[in-house]
Design brief:
Number of strands: 0
Shape: globular
Number of helices: 9
Distance between the termini: 24 Å
Largest sheet: none
Mean pLDDT: 82
Order of helices and strands: HHHHHHHHH
Number of domains: 1
Structural class: mainly alpha
Length: 216
């Protein structure tokens, strides 16, 4: 029970930090300009739903793909940690990501903004893939199905928090301002980089033990 709780908390906090709803706020507000409250919340709900479907699909089928190709989970944890560390460091760097993403998708026309760019790549990007795979590699032997369910529940809880953040985006921005969002983003970056380093460390230990380089 304690292991499942630890898996839930670790997955929830890491996913929330990687997605970083505060960083997604400027993009969301740009895409929802001129919309009323009902349309704004509908956009937030659809984007979170699409992202959740992508996460759970990858959680279920991604594990099978790893088994088919015989990829060592220790390697998955190390690579996932490297990706998370890069994302964490990037969050420290200033830059207007909102305009870049919205401009790159401006020619989409019929593309639903809830799917592109909100659900993917903002909510479902390399960091989320690394987190899901990294947490999957930490599942308890003999309780694989329960571990997958716990990770899925953590993803649902994360998307609920993100939905509430986006649904009240205008109020949040007025309250904390751009400088508050920037400060929070940099703190989140430190947390993400730390989680990435933790995955790398545990992955290296597991790799060395698997090949009997290090005695358990």
């Amino acid at each position: 029970m304690e292991q499942m709780l630890s898996l839930f908390v670790g997955t929830f906090t890491t996913l929330l930090a990687v997605v970083n709803p505060l960083e997604a706020l400027p993009v969301f507000l740009l895409l929802s300009q001129g919309k009323d409250v009902k349309a704004l919340r509908s956009l937030a709900f659809r984007s979170c739903l699409y992202a959740l479907i992508l996460i759970i699909s990858f959680l279920v089928f991604g594990t099978f793909v790893l088994k088919i190709f015989g990829v060592n989970l220790a390697m998955v944890r190390i690579v996932g940690g490297i990706i998370l560390m890069k994302i964490g460091f990037d969050l420290f760097m200033p830059g207007n990501q909102a305009e870049g993403i919205t401009n790159s998708t401006a020619g989409g026309g019929s593309t639903d903004p809830a799917f592109v760019p909100l659900a993917m790549p903002i909510m479902f990007g390399p960091g989320v893939l690394a987190t899901v795979l990294g947490m999957t590699s930490m599942k308890t032997i003999g309780k694989e199905l329960l571990s997958i369910c716990v990770i899925a529940i953590a993803a649902i809880a994360c998307m609920v928090v993100i939905f509430l953040t986006l649904a009240y985006a205008q109020k949040i921005v007025r309250r904390i301002g751009e400088k508050g969002i920037d400060a929070a983003t940099r703190l989140v970056g430190f947390f993400v980089a730390s989680m990435g380093m933790g995955l790398i460390f545990h992955g290296l230990i597991e790799f060395l033990q698997t090949y009997h380089i290090l005695v358990p």
